[in-house]
């Protein structure tokens, strides 16, 4: 039987085994999302039901382990990421309720890059992540929104809208609504469809502008000031612009 200390080491420890375990969870999250997308192109089969249940059981085990080691369990239960995992679990374990709940499974994407240990590990292992963390984070948030809204469009429209046959059709509509292009070849009828389109445009444009802001503003370097703690500085800074304290930013001598 796995003890709490063992679970805490796997989820929060710094050993090579713990790091491999957490990367394994990331791979599992990506696998579940891929399954949701690929299954939309195929007819419903019994193997899909089995995979749904397997994914749901694994998510329950993961939730139970994280709840067991949580130091503030009530706060853990009401956190947005936990609530998203609970909704995703319900969607995986209740396919008999109908495919209209399938879009909830993509909420597993909210786990990506939203755990401190994963972000810290990526920062330590990959220089490209350290140098572009804000850009990657903004891109992931936008991608999560697009896939969640794509799933919502597919779940609410594929049975009654002949223009929505799979996730690609739903993705196409989501992106055209997000960019306010509005070709008009695919529309969502009824009040519900219009409200979904409005939500995509309002929230999606906000996330897209956030990504554009990070993409086009001057790059910053993560180097905490020893005096005031300001974290982000210009690459060529020699003094903290907040308090004037000298700072040492490692460079390769590039201008």
Can you put this structure into words, describing what you see?
By secondary structure, this protein is mainly α. It contains ten helices and two strands. A two-stranded antiparallel sheet has the order 1-2. Helix 3 packs antiparallel against helix 5 and helix 8 packs antiparallel against helix 10. The chain is flat. The model has no long low-confidence stretch (mean pLDDT 79).
What attributes characterize this protein structure?
single chain; 255 residues; mainly alpha; two-stranded antiparallel ribbon; 61% helix; 2% strand
SSE layout and pairing:
Elements: H1 4-12, H2 16-39, H3 46-69, H4 73-77, H5 80-93, H6 116-125, H7 127-131, H8 133-157, H9 167-178, H10 190-216, E1 221-222, E2 232-233
Antiparallel strand pairs: 1-2
Helix pairs in contact: 1-2, 1-3, 3-5, 8-9, 8-10
């Amino acid at each position: 039987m796995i003890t709490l200390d063992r679970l805490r080491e796997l989820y929060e420890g710094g050993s090579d085994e713990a790091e491999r375990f957490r990367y394994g969870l990331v791979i599992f999250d990506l696998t579940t999302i891929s399954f949701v997308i690929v299954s939309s192109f195929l007819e419903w089969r019994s193997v899909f039901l089995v995979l749904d249940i397997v994914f749901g059981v694994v998510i329950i085990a993961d939730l139970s382990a994280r709840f067991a080691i949580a130091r503030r369990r009530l706060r853990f239960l009401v956190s947005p990421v936990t609530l998203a995992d609970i909704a995703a679990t319900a969607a995986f374990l209740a396919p008999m309720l109908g495919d209209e709940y399938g879009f909830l499974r993509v909420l597993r994407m909210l786990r990506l890059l939203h755990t401190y240990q994963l972000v810290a590990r990526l920062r330590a292992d990959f220089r490209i992540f350290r140098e572009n963390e804000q850009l990657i984070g903004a891109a992931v948030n936008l991608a999560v929104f697009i896939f969640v809204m794509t799933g919502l469009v597919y779940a609410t429209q594929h049975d009654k809208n002949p223009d929505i046959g799979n996730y690609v059709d739903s993705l196409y509509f989501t992106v055209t609504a997000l960019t306010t292009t509005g070709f008009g070849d695919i529309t969502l009828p009824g009040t519900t469809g219009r409200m979904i389109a409005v939500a995509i445009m309002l929230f999606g444009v906000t996330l897209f502008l956030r990504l554009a802001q990070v993409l086009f503003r001057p790059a910053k370097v993560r180097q905490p000031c020893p005096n005031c703690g300001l974290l982000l500085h210009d690459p060529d800074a020699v003094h903290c612009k907040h308090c004037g304290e000298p700072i040492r930013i490692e460079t390769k001598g590039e201008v």
